[in-house]
Amino acid sequence: MPQQERSNETRAHILEAATDLFARHGYEATGVAEICAQAGVSKGAFYHHFPTKQAVFLELLDGWLAGLDAELEKARAGAANVPEALVSMAGVAGGILAAGRGQLPLFLEFWTQAAHDPEVWRATIEPYHRFRNYFSGLFQAGIREGSLRPVDPTLAAQVFLSLATGLVLQGLLDPEGADWLRVTREGVQAFLRAYARTGGESGHR
Amino acid sequence: MPQQERSNETRAHILEAATDLFARHGYEATGVAEICAQAGVSKGAFYHHFPTKQAVFLELLDGWLAGLDAELEKARAGAANVPEALVSMAGVAGGILAAGRGQLPLFLEFWTQAAHDPEVWRATIEPYHRFRNYFSGLFQAGIREGSLRPVDPTLAAQVFLSLATGLVLQGLLDPEGADWLRVTREGVQAFLRAYARTGGESGHR
To answer: How far apart are CA B178 and CA B174, in angstroms?
Structure first.
């Protein structure tokens, strides 16, 4: 097998082993040695790919966020306009909650450590800023196409992200506490009643 | 000094010492012995008031939530109707964020531990349910007085709490990332455009 391919495979084994061990034993209780043992790689190979255990976690987070980006793009590409895209994105929430289910203790544990490390903290905050820019751009497009009212798109994006963050957090904290997919759909409808030009309907082309 | 008064004072000293030590050294790194030393009380006195260190944390959380309840009630009592109350409550967000500033690492650390203890987890989730009931009741009153549209008040409360939770979380994670008080005001206005009968205005009595 070519060297590049073998290297990619090693990386994938490390990420897979780390995912499993973090979920089963937590972040703090999992050491690089255990990850290496389960992945069947040497410590040398591990440190060739990742400078620290933290870097492994951040890469897992990146992968999860990249999947989310792709789902949002798909929802947008398949929609006739921005309000339709938002309604379609509400359906993505189910996948986010399913993927995150049972992972909250792990995230909390990681963030607890990240809170003491400004560099890691910045890396975990950065996706928020990226999503804010994404939605700000989306709302700008909605204003341009005439489907959204001419509001401040950044402020609207901050409101939208607050709603989305709160929904995901509550869904993870308290999965049985509500029908979170229904609440998400209602949240998007409320957002559209507040920001869409025709009161949440999208057939105005 | 009467015994009851001395007992209340001991309790207050313990809570004060714990607040200071948790903030300075974190939850995990603070032991009951250190709390007792700083509070100037015996371990016997400590355990007379609190079964565990966790109980101290939960009492601090309760105190913070009771302050929040009181502020919400004050906002409601001073308002002519429910939309006005919500606008006035947006102003409370500044106080919540100020009180929580710098406390996020501590909360994360506590929740990390709580995540492994179903009983403590329930105690930390319970306030969410209480707030949901509070806002559901508030929105019911708004529907009754004719200021809000006749929606499902529980669903509206879940949307409102998602928005509020997301705002507080983002404000604590990323205090410099936005003018969170402005975003909060915009969020309440958006909520009212979506749910108020007269599009967010409140002068319809």
So the answer is: 8
Which of A113, A122, A163, A188 best probes binding to B when mutated, by most B CB atoms within 10 angstroms? Answer: A163
pLDDT in tens, A2-12: 788 888 899 99
Q: For position B38, what pLDDT does the model report?
A: 97
- Using DSSP's 3-state secondary structure scheme, residue A145 falls into helix
Residues of A whose CB is below 8 A from B193: 193-195
Alpha carbons B71 and B84: distance in angstroms, whole number: 15
Contact B170 A177 (CB under 8 A): no
Q: ipTM of the assembly? A: 0.86
- Any idea which residue has 């890469």 for tokens? A59
Contacts of B103 in chain A (CB under 8 A): none
How far is residue B171 from each of residues B104, B112, B174, B182, measured CA to CA in Å? 10, 20, 5, 11
Query: Considering only CA atoms, which of B24, B53, B83, B25 is closest in space to residue B205?
Result: B83
- A-B contacts at Cβ under 8 angstroms: 115
Mean pLDDT of chain B: 88
Alpha-carbon distance of A49 to A7, in angstroms, equals 9
CA dihedral B155, B161, B162, B163 (to 10 degrees): 110
- Nearest by CB: B112 against A109, A164, A195: A109
Q: Which residues of A touch B (CB under 8 A)?
A: 104-105, 108-109, 111-112, 115-116, 125, 128-129, 155-156, 158-159, 161-167, 169-170, 173-174, 177-178, 182-183, 186-187, 189-191, 193-195
Tell me the pLDDT tens digit for each residue of B17-46: 999 998 888 888 899 999 999 999 999 999
Percent of chain B at pLDDT above 70? 96
Indicate the pTM of the whole model: 0.87
Residues 6+ apart with CB under 8 A from B44: none
Domains of chain B (ranges plus CATH)? 1-50 (1.10.10.60), 54-195 (1.10.357.10)
Containing H/E element for B91?
A: helix B82-100
